[in-house]
Structure formats: structure tokens, C-alpha cells
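Customer escalation, tier 2.

The customer says the design service returned an amino acid string that "doesn't look like it belongs to this structure." They asked us to rerun it and document both sides in this ticket. The original C-alpha cells are below, unchanged.
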């Protein structure tokens, strides 16, 4: 059975209960991609995706990898022209951990200046790899000419000049403006319960924060716990 629900903040939750399986796949889909970037910040959506795996306020990059490996799960992400996605596949008994980890990744990334500089080099190498791979390169050339002058014609990775120019301020600003509840779709399928995933008697809807500013630290930010973190807490409370 497929169920769909929209939270007052604008966050959308879609689930399909599959009680005959023992696994769950859950993803956070962001309705923003490379087509929503400006020319000067081409590649920023993909760059931010990379940064979300470099650590959070409470987890290092190694912690993230070890936590998902310890339960035999699979964590991955991608950026496309119109959206980005972060998803985890686990056994159903580990769904609370998956929700908690996804919530942390998409709400509390660290954006360390050292990690930003290292990741620039990684992305620049990715761009070179596309240029050295004929079947990838011909697709980029076709897209550029077909959508000439349109954001859809730009490469998802950006170009070297725009990637090198991206600063910590630009990345955190994009994150604060874009990674908000109204741009999120949480989709899950497997052995799960829709109501269990969405609701918790201990946390009211006032904890969901639809606007920018979640990247702030301190007491005020904690009072406005974002909806995905509320989902994580709610699932743990009844697990």
C-alpha cells in the first residue's frame, strides 16, 4: 500500500509498506538540482552533495561510513539536473538508525574549510575524468548544444573556474536556502509503518522548521529542531 502525506512545513512523505520483505530503502530527495543554479555558481549543488558526506556536527566522515557498514547497510547519493537524492538500504530492524543518519547528514553538515579545499580537488578530477571518457563527453556536448543558453545545458559537475571559486560562504548559503522542509521528499519502501515513521506523541509539529537558518548552532537552533530530526526522534521513541 502506497501512502502520501504532506507535513504543514511542506515536507512530503511517501511510503510503500511491503510486509513480506525484511528490508527497507529510505531516501531524502531534494527538489533542487543543477538547473536551479546561477551561471556563476555552476556545480554548487553537486559540491554540497559531496560535503554532506564529509562529516556533521556530531559525526566524522569515518563515523558515517562505519555506522552504516556496522549494520550491513548501503548509503549513497547523487545530483542530477533537477534534483538530488540521499538514500540508505538496511534491514528493517535498522530503520531507526537509517532515519537518524539521514537526518543528521542533510541537516547538520560541518562544511570544514579544509574539507572544502580537498573536495575541490576531487571534483576537478571528476571533471577531467568526464573529459577523458568519450561516452560521457559526447553526452555533455550534446546537452550543451541542445539546451544552448539554458541552465539544463550546463554540466552537473560545473566547470573548473566555477568550482574553484566556490567558497565556504557560498556553500553554506546555498545549503541554508535550499535544504529546507518544503524542498524535501522523504520516500521509503519495505517493511515499515507509515504512521510510525511520521508521528511521535512526544514531538509536536512546532518542531518542524520550514525556513532557512537550520545551519545555525546554539540554543535557538536546537529549539527549532527540523522535521527530519523530529522524524528520527519519533521513530526511536517508539522502536
Amino acid at each position: 500500500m502506497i501512502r502520501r502525506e504532506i507535513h504543514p512545513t511542506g515536507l512530503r512523505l511517501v511510503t510503500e509498506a511491503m510486509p513480506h520483505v525484511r528490508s527497507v530503502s529510505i531516501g531524502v530527495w531534494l527538489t533542487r538540482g543543477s538547473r536551479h543554479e546561477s551561471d556563476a555558481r555552476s556545480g554548487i549543488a553537486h559540491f554540497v552533495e559531496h560535503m554532506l558526506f564529509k562529516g556533521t556536527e556530531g559525526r566524522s566522515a569515518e563515523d558515517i561510513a562505519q555506522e552504516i557498514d556496522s549494520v550491513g547497510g548501503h548509503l549513497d547519493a547523487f545530483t542530477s539536473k533537477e534534483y538530488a537524492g540521499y538514500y540508505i538500504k538496511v534491514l528493517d530492524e535498522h530503520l531507526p538508525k537509517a532515519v537518524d543518519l539521514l537526518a543528521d547528514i542533510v541537516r547538520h553538515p560541518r562544511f570544514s574549510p579544509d574539507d572544502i579545499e580537498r573536495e575541490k580537488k576531487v571534483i576537478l578530477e571528476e571533471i577531467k575524468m568526464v573529459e577523458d571518457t568519450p561516452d560521457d563527453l559526447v553526452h555533455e556536448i550534446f546537452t550543451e548544444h541542445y539546451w544552448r543558453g539554458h541552465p539544463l545545458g550546463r554540466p552537473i559537475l560545473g566547470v573548473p573556474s566555477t568550482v574553484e571559486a566556490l567558497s565556504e560562504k557560498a556553500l553554506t548559503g546555498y545549503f541554508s536556502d535550499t535544504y529546507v522542509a518544503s524542498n524535501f521528499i522523504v520516500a521509503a519502501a519495505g517493511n515499515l509503518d507509515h504512521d510510525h515513521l511520521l508521528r511521535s506523541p512526544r514531538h509536536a509539529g512546532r518542531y518542524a522548521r520550514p525556513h532557512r537558518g537550520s545551519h545555525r548552532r546554539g540554543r535557538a537552533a536546537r529549539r527549532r529542531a527540523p522535521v527530519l530530526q523530529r522524524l528520527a526522534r519519533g521513530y526511536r521513541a517508539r522502536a
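Tier 2 assessment: The sequence is consistent with the input. Residues 50 and 122 are 9 Å apart (CA to CA). The chain has a mean pLDDT of 85. Sent an explanation to the customer and offered a walkthrough call.
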